Amino acid sequence: MRSSLELLHYGKIVYFWNLCETVERETLALPLKIHNKVICLCGSTKPEWRTKYREVLETLTLMGNAVFTVVWFRGDFYGDFEQRRPLMEQVHYLKIRSSEAVVVIDRKAVGEHTAEEIAYAEKLGIPVYFYDEVSMEKVTAT
Prior knowledge:
The protein has helices at 4-29, 50-62, 81-97, 112-123, 136-140; strands spanning 38-42, 66-68, 101-104, 128-130. By secondary structure, the chain is an alpha/beta fold. The protein has two domains: 1-30; 38-140, Rossmann fold (3-Layer(aba) Sandwich). A four-stranded parallel β-sheet has the order 2-1-3-4, with helices on both faces. The radius of gyration is 21 Å and the shape is globular.
């Protein structure tokens, strides 16, 4: 026989599980207009672009897209950044290959590495857009 504490705990778990199922069922029934595109953000990783990355990430995510972005900005990483840089670059190129579109956060945020990423995406036939130069509705249109 279970103690009253065990029954209370069990009841909370069952209640939470039922609540999750209800929310999921109701959410799936909503007529949401989401775009469901996979988009990779590119641009400078200098700290001054952090806010712009956040703005673009939030805008595209709230439109219903899955958005890849950078992991670190220069100065964020504590340790041997140059040792890990090749791995981070390989992962970022994987994100580009896995995307349906690339959005560059700002034309002013294009340096040597970003230019190489743009060329790579274009070579693969992945469209490249500049955030401030085109409507994000156009980017995410299916």
